[in-house]
Design brief:
single chain; 193 residues; mainly alpha; Rna Polymerase Sigma Factor, Chain: A; Arc Repressor Mutant, subunit A; globular
Length: 193
């Protein structure tokens, strides 16, 4: 995790005691990593921002009930993963066209140093991987995003998903199998998973 756990514990304690400025410090520390996770899950900046805002609102609403020794990172990512899952299910039932389907954090435009055809191929590969990850079941998708993009340990992911480290390892293994199948790993131009 990027955020300092001692600072999290202190701010969580202060927030529970009514110090609203502690929420500002928590938001400053956690907004970017939470937004990055939400964007990778829902693939829409506006929706990701809304979901992250809802997580912080829920944290504020539940501030009195949270213990100071709670793992704030686990609480935030668990709440956000559940919100993203619910949002994804709602979007599946109510499809809409996204104006940023090919853009957003991490996707980017082709680099000026790359030849146009190289940038196009890279963009297609990124879109293929993103599409394959989006097609994973919720638990596998959360495990992949948290492990490979947010660099969380198996124990941290297990706390978020409510399973053991071995359960996380199994989810990641199965996710890699599904991603290989979806991406057609026999093609030499595809990145290795």
């Amino acid at each position: 995790m990027n955020a300092d756990s001692d600072a999290d514990r202190t701010d969580l304690l202060l927030l529970g005691q009514g110090d609203d400025l502690a929420l500002n410090r928590i938001i400053t520390r956690w907004e970017r990593p939470l937004f990055a996770f939400a964007w990778r899950y829902v693939r829409n900046s506006a929706d990701a921002q809304d979901l992250v805002a809802v997580v912080f609102v829920r944290l504020y609403e539940r501030r009195a009930g949270l213990r100071a020794d709670s793992r704030l990172a686990g609480w935030l990512f668990t709440a956000l993963a559940n919100l993203c899952h619910n949002h994804h299910r709602w979007r599946r039932r109510h499809p809409a066209v996204s104006l940023e389907a090919a853009g957003g954090p991490g996707a980017g435009l082709a680099s000026a140093e790359l030849a146009p055809d190289t940038g196009l191929e890279r963009g297609e590969a990124v879109a293929a991987v993103a599409g394959a990850i989006a097609g994973l079941p919720h638990d596998m998708k959360v495990a992949v995003l948290l492990h490979y993009f947010d660099d969380l340990s198996f124990s941290e992911i297990g706390a978020i998903l409510g399973c053991s480290e071995r359960g996380v390892e199994t989810r990641l293994y199965r996710a890699r199998q599904q991603l290989r199948q979806a991406l057609g790993s026999s093609g030499s131009d595809r990145p290795a998973l």
